[in-house]
Amino acid sequence: MSWTHSLIITEIPISCLFILVTGGSRYVPGLGNDGSGFGADPFTGAGRYIPGSSSNESAPSGVADPFTGKGAYSSAAQRQTQTNVYFPKTDGVTFEQANAPQIIAKLKELNEGAPQEHKLSEETMESLEGLLQVVCEANSPEPPPTIQQISLLWKVSHWPEEIVFPVLDILRLAVRHPQVNESLCGEAEGVQLCNHLLSLMRPEGRPANQLLALRTLCNCFSGRHGRALLMSQRETILSRAADLAAVCNKNIHIALATLVLNYAGCLHSQPDLEAKAQCLSVASRALETVQDKEAIFRLLVALGTTVASDQTAQDLARSLGVGSQISRYSTVSEPSKVGECCQLVLKALH
Hints:
By secondary structure, this protein is mostly helical.
C-alpha cells in the first residue's frame, strides 16, 4: 500500500475500520529543577515549553531503558538481536517536571494584572501554593490536599484563557495525587474535567493551554479513577487530540504521542478492537505531520504496543498501510531508539 493510500485510509471512520477488519529563570510550564532536563520527567527528556515558542531539546538517545534514560544501550550485539525493550509499554507515562517557585511567581504576576473580577485573594493564592507544595513532592510530610483546596483549584482553572496556564500547570501536577485524582476524575466531576480540558485543546486555542491540557490528560492515567475516566471518554478525547497534530509545536506533538501511547498501554490486554483501531488511526494520522524524533518514537511505541500479541490488531495495522508508512524510520540512527523500535514494529507486522 502506498504512502498516499495510507493517508486516505487513516481518515476512514473508526466504525468502518472495525467492520473492515472484523470483516531557565523564565517560567516554563512542566519544567523541573533538573538542569539536564532528563531525570524528573524521564520520558520527555529535555522537552520544554515556553509560551509562544516551539523550541524543544531532543531527549538523549542510546540508553538501556528508553523510558528512564538510565544505563548504556550501545552494544552492537544488542542491536543486532533487536532486544525489544520498547513495547508493549503498559505502565502510564506522565509529565513529572515542575519548578514550584516559578509557577507561583508567574501566577502572582498574572494575578497582579488580572481584571478585577478575576483577581485572586491572598488566601486563595496561599491555598494554591500549599496544594502545589503537597503534589510536587512524592513523599510530602504535609497533609493531603483538602476538598476545599481541590475545589478551589477547579474553580481557578476556569480563569481567562490568556492567563490560566500556570493554574493548568498546577492541575497537571495535582491529578497525579491519589486524592485529587479521585476527586476530579470521579464519575460526576470527571466528565466536567474532560470537557474543560477539551475546550482548552481547540485547534484555534492557545498553545500553552493545549500543551498543558494534553499533559494533564496524560497524568490522569496515573490513578485508577483517571484511567477509568479517560477510557470512558476515549473516543472524544482522542478525536480532539488528533486535531492537534496540525499545530506546529513539537512539545504538543510529544504530549499527543504520549496520550496515544497511554491509551495503547491500557488497551494492550483488552480485546477492544474498535478502541485499538482508533489508537492506530490517530497514531498513523499524527505520523503524517509530526517531525520531532521523540514524538515519532512514542508513536512507534504506541503502534507496537497496540499490535503486540494481537493478530487482529496486526491485520488492522496492515490494512491501514502502517508498515509502508513507518518504514522510512527504520534507518534512523539518531536517536538510535527510533530506528530500532521501528524495525521491531515492522517485524511484528510481518
